[in-house]
Amino acid sequence: MTETLRPAVGTPVPRTEDRPLIQGKANWTDAIAPPATMHVAVLRSPFAHARITALDTTPAAELSGVVAVFSGADLADVKAARPEAGYLVEWDFPADLDMDTYLANKKAKAPKYAEVPEVSFLRTYVREDMEKCLCLYDAPDEGIVRKARDAVSTPIDRLHELDQG
């Protein structure tokens, strides 16, 4: 059977998605609630620059359906448990490196960081224009950061020690 191709320009395209939209029967991601879904609500002070000196979360915690209540003090404890970045590595991407290749290389090389247990790789930020990559590390010294970058065969264009104060 031979299929006849119609020209794309100037030819109406049948739209299959319209009927549910017009009838109000469309499925929206906002309406999907998988089992055990929880929601978050954030309450902020209605007063600009107010200093909160006391906060009783008991009434909120006692509401039906509430799983947990966190205050700023609770979140400060979580933040304090995170390692702090001591070093920032800048890497200027080669012009021929695309995002898919970068991500595949990163995934393949990531296990090699285990060869340098003294360093913790914390986070990578890639500029949208793919010109530069910034990587944050927690390490005792610059030499260990360089050793970790060597382990994953990734260059360093600039290395900065970050102020911990």
Kindly describe this structure.
By secondary structure, the protein is of the alpha+beta class. The protein has a domain at about 85-160: Alpha-Beta Plaits (2-Layer Sandwich). The chain is about 25% helix and about 15% strand. The protein is built from 5 helices and 4 strands. It has helices at about 20-25, 60, 70-80, 100-110, 140-150, and strands at about 85-90, 120-125, 130-140, 160. A 4-stranded antiparallel β-sheet has the order 2-3-1-4, with no helix packed on it. The longest helix is centred in the middle third of the chain and has 11 residues, at about 100-110. The N and C termini lie far apart (about 75 Å). The mean pLDDT is about 80.
Count of helices?
5
First and last CA, distance: 74 Å
Q: Would you give the CATH topology of the domain at 83-161?
A: Alpha-Beta Plaits
**Helix-and-strand structural type:** alpha+beta
Task: Report the strand count.
Answer: 4
> Average pLDDT value?
82
Low-pLDDT sequence parts: none
**Shape category:** flat
**Multimeric state:** single chain
Helical percent range? Answer: 10-25%
Main sheet: which strands, in order across?
2-3-1-4
Computed CA radius of gyration, to the nearest angstrom: 26 Å
Q: What top-tier CATH class of the domain at 83-161 fits best?
A: Alpha Beta
* Full CATH superfamily name of the domain at 83-161: ORF SCO4226, nickel-binding ferredoxin-like monomer
Q: Order of SSEs, N→C?
A: HHHEHEEHE
Portion in strands: 5-15%
CATH architecture of the domain at 83-161: 2-Layer Sandwich
Largest pleated sheet: 4 strands, antiparallel
